Amino acid sequence: MVEPGLATAASLAAVRAAIRPGITTLELDALAEAAIIAAGGESNFKLVPGYRHTVCASVNADVVHGIPNNRPLEPGDIVSIDSGAILGGWNGDSAMTIVLEDFTRPDLVAERRLLADITEGSLWAGIAALASARHLNEVGAAIEDYIVEHGRGHRYGILEDYVGHGIGKSMHEEPPVYNYRVRPRGPEVKPGLVVAIEPMVVRGSIDTIIQDDDWTVTTADGEPAAHWEHSVAVHPGGIWVLTAVDGGAAGLAPFGVTPVPIP
Fold first, then answer.
1. DSSP 12
2. 96 with 124: CB under 8 angstroms?
3. Which of 26, 53, 97, 243 is deepest in the core (most CB within 10 A)?
4. CB 198, CB 179: distance < 8 Å
5. Range of the domain at 170
6. The domain spanning residue 121 has which CATH number?
7. Pure H helices in 103-174
8. What's the pLDDT tens digit per position in 204-223?
9. pLDDT digits over 42-81, tens only?
10. Which value, in Å, is the radius of gyration of the alpha carbons in the chain?
11. How many domains does the chain divide into?
12. Rounded Cα–Cα distance for residues 66 and 59 (Å)
């Protein structure tokens, strides 16, 4: 699953390089697709019945599953891009959140970047926990603990209706990967397990609505949201982040975890 993971990473890298005020999410969608094709893959999002785009682009109060459109992005927007690739019959899935600069509203930008940074940090906390976990639901506990510790003084909520998942021959497989502490311990963590870990964090209430397009999930109170995701493999030597070019080395370093390449 390394190749589809790297194709997915390439699509997000293309978006990161191009995103700016004035560009549309439809333009970003085309760049992501071109990167996946250049890597020898195809978009797995386009294989989902009823969905016609390479990425989901969720802006401001949209949390996940936002449909790319022709609205130019504006300074200060917080933008989550979720992308996936299929190559050789195997899938990759990853997401990131970017806040666009707005020099006229530095407080808004700082507030939104903090939300994005804490959400990304919680993702890496969950991945780090997976490296030594005996049961899968230790991941969600680590994510929640990170958000509680680093989000003190802020009204952050972790979405409960949308969680991570297994990934392999299909983009979405069992088991579910919770982003918060639950009572069951979950499946045993052992070599062969591959999961997409994806915390979705909002400022304010975790209540959401689905827009009339039947895809876009939006916060009910209109507060901003962030979404980060990586696909991670457990193998006999350790873990490897399939959708990170360095296998997750940089993100895991603060947690004292070193990813091990798949033999």
1. H
2. no
3. 243
4. yes
5. 2-255
6. 3.90.230.10
7. 106-132, 138-150
8. 999 999 999 999 999 999 99
9. 999 999 999 999 999 999 999 999 999 999 999 999 999 9
10. 17
11. 1
12. 7
